[in-house]
C-alpha cells in the first residue's frame, strides 16, 4: 500500500513538473535549423513552426527584406490611426525566429483602441508626438479590481505591454505621432475588443452582451449595427 502511494505521489509530482515546464515555455517554438523561410500558399497544408519551410537552396535575400516602413500609414479613418505590421505573413524570413515589428501612425486625437496580442509581449517606442498609453491587469482575486497601468509618453520613451493584456495608445498631442513596436512572436495576432465583441460575424446574441455589460438590448443592437474600423494593415 505504501509503495502504491509513493508511486502515485511521484507520478503526480512528475505531471505537475511537466505542466509547469509546458506553461513556462508557452511561446513561439525555438527553431531547429538556421532558417525556415515561410512559403505563403493557399494550398499548403503542412505547417512547421507556423508555416512550411522553403528549401534553403531556393532562399534569396528578398525573403528577409521588407520595404516601405518609411511610408506613413493612412490615418484618415474613424480611429485616426494606422498600424503597418511586419510579420511572417509579409516577411517570410521571420518564420521560426519568434519576432516581428510594426509602425504605428497617429493623427491628432487618434487612437489605437483597446486590444490584445494573444501570442506576444510588445515593446513600444515613441519617436514623435505625445501619447497616453496603458494596459489593464488580468482578473484579480475576489474583492480587488483590475488595475490600470498608464503613462504619458513623449518622444524617446519606451513602454512595454505584457503578453495577452488589454492595452491602448491615444494621441493627446496637437501634432501627429509616430511609434515603432517589436513583438516576441513572428505572428503576434491582434484582438480588438470592441470589434470582436460588437462586430463578430455572426453577431453574439444581444441578450448575452446586455447581461455581460449591464446594457440595454437596444443599445447592444445599436452597437452591433456600427461599422467597426480595422486599423491594421
Q: What are the defining features of this structure?
A:
233 residues; 2 domains; alpha+beta
Largest sheet: 5 strands, antiparallel
The percentage helix is: 10-25%
Spans of at least 5 consecutive residues whose pLDDT stays below 50 are 12-26
The portion of residues forming beta strands comes to: 15-25%
Q: Measured on Cα atoms, how large is the radius of gyration? A: 22 Å
Strand order of the largest sheet: 1-2-9-4-7
Mean pLDDT: 87
CATH architectural name of the largest domain: Sandwich
**What is the overall silhouette?**
globular
Count of DSSP-assigned helices: 4
Order of helices and strands: HEEEEEEEEEEHHH
Number of spatially distinct domains? 2
Structural class per helix/strand content? Answer: alpha+beta
Number of strands: 10
The CATH first-level class of the largest domain comes to: Mainly Beta
Amino-to-carboxy terminus distance: 63 Å
| Fold-level CATH name of the largest domain | Jelly Rolls
CATH superfamily of the largest domain: Jelly Rolls
Protein name: Germin-like protein
GO cellular component, one term: apoplast
GO molecular function, one term: manganese ion binding
Binding site for oxalate: 112, 117, 122
